[in-house]
Amino acid sequence: MRYRLAVAATSIAIAFSQCSGSSPASPAAKAQCDESLWTHVYDPSRLQIRDTCRTVTGVITDQHLNDDGDIDVRLALDPPYVNLLNANNISNLNGHLQTEAICQAPISSADAARTCAGFTGSVRIPADGMHVQVTGTYTFDTFHGWMEIHPISVLTVIP
Asked: Contact, 47 vs 81, CB < 8 A?
């Protein structure tokens, strides 16, 4: 009986250590965020930071080039992340999350050109319909009234 209890306790301890060893998903995600990107965000005063580094998953619904040089990528979030949306995401973006890869498109604004001067973003944007993981700064855009990940630090396709 003692032997079985000892084996069970050891198994629980091993399982717990493996779980606790793999749980630093948050710190790993934080390590992926690139704070230096903020020096190239156009008009950062309009963005209120809610989380300096957040990772979400979802499906790309659409994307377009913005005149400030950003590529706007909208995501239909996976269920665990829909709580990150607000009323304006729901009413103005069809329930999607705006994400932005900075300084990657032609720029038609002189102010934005100065912000991106000497820097070109390198976030590869896959096609619409792809399931992706996006890591970056979770912000409230005071101009549009919706939540965003802006700027994107890392975007990867989920196989």
From this structure: no
- SS3 (DSSP) at 64: strand
> What does the domain layout of the chain look like in residue ranges?
1-25, 33-157
Strand, helix or coil at 36? helix
Asked whether 50 and 129 are in contact (CB, 8 A), the reply is no
CATH of domain 33-157: 2.40.50.140
Is this prediction's pTM over 0.90? no
* Per-residue confidence in pLDDT tens, the chain, 159 aa: 443 433 333 333 333 333 333 333 444 444 489 999 999 999 999 999 999 999 999 999 999 999 999 999 999 999 999 999 999 999 999 999 999 999 999 999 888 999 999 999 999 999 999 999 999 999 999 999 999 999 999 999 998
Distance from C-alpha of 101 to C-alpha of 118, rounded to nearest angstrom: 16
